[in-house]
Structure formats: C-alpha cells, structure tokens
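Predicting holo structure, xanthosine-5'-monophosphate bound.
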Amino acid sequence: DGFPATRLFSQGYSYTYDDVIFLPHYIDFPTDAVSLSTKLSRHVGLATPCVSSPMDTVTESSMAAAMASLGAIGIIHSNTSASNQAALIRLAKSHKIPFTHELIFKSSSDSILSADQFSSAPCIFVTESGREKSKLLGIVKKSDWEKLADKEVRISEYMTKSSVTLPASYSFETVAGYLAKDKLDFVPLVRDNGEKGEEIVNLVTSDDVERIQEFPKLGLPSVGSDGDFLVGAAMGTRETDKERLEHLVKAGVNVVVLDSSQGNSIYQIEMIKYVKKMYPELDLIGGNVVTTYQAQNLIQAGVDGLRVGMGSGSICTTQEVCAVGRGQATAVYKVASVAAQSGVPVIADGGISNSGHIVKALTLGASTVMMGSFLAGSSEAPGIYEYQNGCRVKKYRGMGSLEAMMRGSDARYLGDKAKLKIAQGVVGAVADKGSVLKLIPYTMQAVKQGLQDLGASSLQSAHDLLKSGMLRLEVRTGAAQVEGGVHGLVSYEKKPF
Ligand code: XMP
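Done. Tokens:
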C-alpha cells in the first residue's frame, strides 16, 4: 500500500503537510514509551523537539525561559539593539522557573485607577524610579487595592513596605515548598545585582504552582553545563552583526541562528566561516533553505544545524511576492535526506498549525519544529491581549512585514540597503492559547500518539522507518482532506488549540 517517501517526493510536486498522509504501521509499545528526545544542532540536545521562532511577537525572555523549562528552546529575536537582545538572553538564563506573570512597576507617587493595571499579576511593585531595575520600595497587593474606597490616593499611602522575597536561583520545587510552608499567595523572586541592590525578576503564585503541578510531565528542562536554561538567539549577516555576536556570546547564548529567508548566499557563507573561526565551540544554525543544493552549500561552510522553510509560515507572503519557495513537506524531506548524511539536524520552520503537522515534520526527517503562530497567542509571547469580535487575541506579525522591517528586520530579507521596502509578510492577530506550559505538554502527548500509530518509539526510529521504505505515504485528494477534518456537523465544540 502507499508509496515510499523517495518515490512520493520525486514526482515534481511541491507538497505541504496537509497534502500528505502516513499509512499506519505496527504498534508494539505503549504511548508513554515514545521518546521525543532529539538534537537541535550537532551539539545541543533537547528532551522536547520544539523551538520558538526568533520573531518579535514570539520569543523574548518569558518565552525562552518557558520553552527551556519544558525541555525545548526559544530563539530570541534580533529586531532590537544588540545590548537589549543580550539583556533578554541574560534575563531568560537567570531563571530556574518560567515567568507566568507580567511584572508591573510603579512609583510611590502614582495612583492605580483601574484593576486592569495589575494585568494577571496579584501585585504591583513600587520602585524608586517607577520602573524595573530600580530600588524596591514596597508592593501593592491587588487584594489591598480592591479594598480602597478612594482609588485616586497615592500608592505611598497604602503600599506594603516589606515583602518576603526568594532568590531567582531557587528551583520550582523549593519555591513551591516555601509558598506551601508559609501559606503565601505569591512570592517575588529577586536577583542580586551587586551595588545596584536587588532586582525583581519573577513572581510565582500558589495558583501557578498548582497549575504547573497538574500539567503532564515532559522530559528534563534544557539546561547547559553552567546549570542555566539553554537560550538561543538570532543574528544577521551584516558587518554589524559581528559586534552583535560579541554581545550574544558575553550574555551566555547557547546557540546562534543566522536569520535569513534565503540562506544560500555569499553573505551567510562568509558569516558561517567567521563565526566558526571565532567561536568553534558555539553551535551555529544556518538557513533558511528548502533545496538539497542550498543545504549542501551551508553544510560545507560548517553549520551545525539547518532551518528549513521558505514561504510556508502563516504570515509569509514570500511565495506570492517573489515566486520562490517550496511546499514544506517536500522541503523538509529533501533537505533532511542530505543533512542526515552529514549528521546535521534539521529544524522544520513554519507552517505548523496542529500536532499532526508536527508528527509529519518529525517523521519526514526533521529533528525539531520551529513555531511562530502556534505559540504567538500564548501568555509567554510578548505583547498584550486585546479583544477582536469578542475573541481574546494577541498581535502576531511577520518579520518581513513593513511594520517589523521599520524596526530593523529588513536585513533578514537582504533588503536593508534597498530604497524601496517590499513586504514579504503581514501583520495580524492570533487567538489566546493560554500558557505554553500547558499547550506544549498536551501537544507533545498527541505527537507521541501519532508516532505510536506509525510504530516509531523515537524520532530516530521514525526516520529509519521512512528511509527503509517500511513507512508509506499517500497524497490526499481535496475530498480526502475534507474527510480528514471535522465535517457534516451543524456545530461542534472547537478544540482549545
Ligand atoms: P508560522 O507558520 O509558525 O511561521 O507562523 C513562522 C516562520 O515564518 C517565517 N517568517 C516569515 N516568512 N515573511 C516570510 O516569508 C515574514 O514576514 C516572516 N516572518 C517570519 C520564519 O521562518 C518563522 O520562523
């Protein structure tokens, strides 16, 4: 039945994930026996095969810390100054517990007029400057503020001046233990900043602890030899990126991604050689590529990992604007086939909108999946929630959108020197997904079930089954795709993610 991958992908068609379907194989192990452990790049291992995109509406410190706590990894975007990007890396790495709340700072002369100002946090921090990284003067508990008759009164008149804090270096279990022992509703976590005093870097509530303890357990968190979370960062291929690289390395970055929509360029190849010469120990991911020719060039130049995808992202318009790209299923299969021969892991980047797409990407040869829209609506993504037509949403924009390029991301599209800027992406919004601390474990459970149906108890065994031709695929007709989705119902309860 069906076709082996070599035959299916050599007919001259560009297939997306939805075009193809695997035929079930033979199961001789339980779902929990499926291991998702993998490699992001030659020397960076992960327990969970997920990567958050280097986009300014997807990955900053909060996302990077949450992804690492799940055994996955976040790549901090470079659409900001090098020093700010380095600060985002440091902040993510300074945590042992993912962030669950936005930290809100005010000065003692401010007033709090609306409950919205607390966002989802149970307290507001009062500092000397009214901003972060400034001496802590006290806190305002939401419960105290709610009791105030006159909301216009200055914070200094009712704030609590002393509060229990714990070091940010404490593990989740230790912080959970303190909260339970002292019956606290929440505790701020602080980092000692030497002469500047203590800096508030996180806030953990007893509700968070209960919630996190209920989530299905994934593999071990992603930590480096220094015991800190693994964090990646993006950079470009301009001369100024060499300076950016210094900042990233000083901040302790664990892996660097050369962020380009068409990676097979002289600029990228020269940058690969430069980075590998300067920092031979630092893993470097090149891309993006979609063909074996592009992949071979970058492998030859010395990359430790390859990012695959062109125009498959949910916000991408590259294929329409530039007439280049490739269906993502074909691109992943073709690139992974050559990359495997050199031991270079492949990241399937873009086009993931459900767990089935992840199963397809990983089975077609990818070692990890990189996601933008799938994670952009989560509480860990940068930005605030808004309401659109009664739906709670967060902004999500392509790094090739005019709006993002105005902030500097045009280098990704090699358009920074062009007088006219041509958009290769759009600005939009995605639905609230809740926390990635819940979203990723549930999604990974579904991925394990998919791999079990294929008879693969690990990613390596999925790759081997595909290569041997034992695993078979078919192309789905339009009608088969409709049949494969929910159909024929007047209404149904939509899955939360
Ligand atoms: P998803 O489908 O996960 O895709 O939202 C995220 C990936 O899309 C790429 N990306 C872009 N591609 N124009 C493009 O053609 C853009 O403006 C753009 N912004 C991001 C990127 O590879 C990301 O990981």
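Residues 332 and 348 are 6 Å apart (CA to CA).
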